[in-house]
Automatic annotation (TrEMBL):
Protein name stated in the entry: Cysteine desulfurase
Location of the Aminotransferase class V domain: 26-397
A Gene Ontology biological process term: cysteine metabolic process
The species this protein was found in: Gimesia panareensis
Co-factor(s): pyridoxal 5'-phosphate
Annotated SUPFAM superfamilies: PLP-dependent transferases (SSF53383)
Domain of life according to the entry: Bacteria
GO terms for MF: cysteine desulfurase activity; pyridoxal phosphate binding
EC number: 2.8.1.7
Amino acid sequence: MVANLSAIRNDFPILQRSLPNGKPLVYLDSGASAQRPQVVIDKISEVYEQYYSNVHRGVHQLGDRVTTEMESARSRIQNFIGAEHPEEVIFTSGTTMSINLVAQAWGRHFLKAGDEIILNEMEHHANFVPWQAVAQEQGAVLKFIQLTPDGRLDLEHYQSLLSAKTRMVSVTGMSNVLGTINPVEEMARLAHEAGALFFVDGAQSVPHLPVNVVESEIDFLAFSGHKIFGPSGIGVLYGRQALLENLPPFLFGGNMISEVHLDESKWARLPARFEAGTPAITQAIALGTAIDYVTELGFDAIEEQEHHLSQYALEKLLAVPGLEIYGPQELARRGAIFSFNIAGAHPEDLATLLDRRGIAVRHGHHCTMPLHQHLQIPASVRASLCFYNTTEDIDALIEAIDFARQRLRLA
């Protein structure tokens, strides 16, 4: 993988550009949104230039072609995540919509007063607020797994929370702030032993780690196209077929019905039941291309490169005076996400000064207010790496941090 890095970087045209200030772009914000390879950009153009139409109901050639392309993408995503049936792959607008779909459709139908949902403080708001809202509406109770001092889930405490009242456990595969890789297989097994369902927010983990929903006993999985090198505005909800078939629809309108009468309507079969309205056709097709790209690279190569980058970044960042990294420092327990603060520097000031040197990072609470409250900090700076990054990118980050420390009179 490392030997082919130059060729891989050439797949991403935006990485070849310089910023208006003349600095080369060093993109360290893939945790917010990854860049797109040329094959994905080309696929988007191909759809619009050659066969764009609406899907499923047309008998003309364009309609047939675009429907075939979209359903082919669904099948490739099914294989990518190890699902048993293509109907278990629901196209949504993204991870947030996928989680809301289950929280509302399942929660309103199956949750009752006194039932319990288990979350934790490292979750993105998208995997926190939907459960909070439906719990309040249904009278259910939220339970929170404690975090260890180094930012991992305390599994002993998790086991103590599980009970006959537990209905759902929802956890991120990888923290978007701490980089923590959570042991979803073990957690799913324990949830099922208690009779609960298990949901994984895969927004951060699916682009970087292999997943097999059957082997890991995952009941629901959500992820977004824009974080796995595909378009924005498209995402995936996986659900076990038996579970999805028992869920009522969340949105209503065209495509999700089989019959409509004046006094009642009947719902379509999967997956259409949960895909009301005209879908994001081009985005879904291009997501299939992005999945192909990742599959061709292979997770062995991706993990090797990102492990190499993480090791280098951790060593360099820890050497910066006054810099504190949040999350595990054992590489086996974390992904290539590094959130940090520097004593005496406001995160926004630091990120702004890094941008002046061409370094794209993120600052703020990263949609994890409960986690930042737990850490007793208002905000942090986050550098999130990807296989297309280089050790030279990390060197540029460290040089820019030194520049910022000098400008802020910290050095």
